[in-house]
Design goal:
Layout (H helix, E strand, L loop, with lengths): L4 H7 L6 H21 L4 H18 L12 H20 L3 H17 L3 H24 L2 H12 L4 H8 L3 H23 L5
Length: 196
């Protein structure tokens, strides 16, 4: 990973730094779209939401002060996406059917006691983890990543994975430990102090 997230925030202040903007877009656009969909927007509106938030970030990133003690980027982005989402829903005059769908989702969310803040925070962590896993996959051999994937995500036994991929059980445990540690490092590099 070539930049840590705080340095990425500094780099995107330069509108001409295409690499920085491409990295930023790759990390945060999926989060914004998923948040829009999770809060009841249709696919097109969720795409519009992501585009509007990206535009606002582009316009206002110079005014954002990265200081984990007083104002975290996650909070600033969360405020932007919530405000834009509300404006989009209000401005579009959502059709009755869409309103009914949103109301049904709101009821389910209330029943499950899942708030938009919780959705945002969950998606925040998922998108950053996904980004780190893509980076990890580029760093290690294919078999090593496959061992990690099968043991951690597919929850297969170490013995089964070892047998299937032709490695020892000890190798499976070592790979799991080593790559879990590396994912933690990548997450720390990417989200810094906002990991908690």
């Amino acid at each position: 990973m070539d930049v840590t997230r705080p340095s990425l925030l500094l780099r995107i202040r330069d509108a001409n730094d295409q690499d920085a903007w491409q990295s930023f877009y790759g990390i945060y656009r999926p989060l914004l779209v998923r948040y829009g969909r999770a809060t009841g927007l249709c696919a097109d509106d969720a795409d519009d939401l992501a585009q509007q938030v990206m535009s606002v970030v582009h316009q206002k990133i110079d005014a954002f002060e990265y200081n984990p003690k007083s104002g975290r980027f996650r909070g600033w982005l969360h405020t932007l996406v919530c405000n834009r989402s509300s404006n989009l829903k209000r401005g579009r005059g959502v059709a009755n059917r869409a309103q009914e769908k949103v109301a049904a989702q709101e009821r389910r969310r209330e029943e499950d006691q899942v708030t938009p803040d919780q959705i945002f925070n969950q998606l925040w962590m998922q998108e950053h983890l996904w980004h780190c896993l893509k980076q990890l996959e580029l760093e290690v051999e294919a078999t090593t990543f496959q061992v990690f994937q099968q043991v951690v995500f597919e929850e297969q036994s170490a013995a089964k994975v070892a047998d299937e991929l032709g490695v020892t059980v000890q190798n499976v445990h070592t790979i799991k430990w080593r790559l879990t540690k590396r994912v933690g490092e990548l997450m720390k590099d990417l989200v810094g102090e906002e990991l908690d």
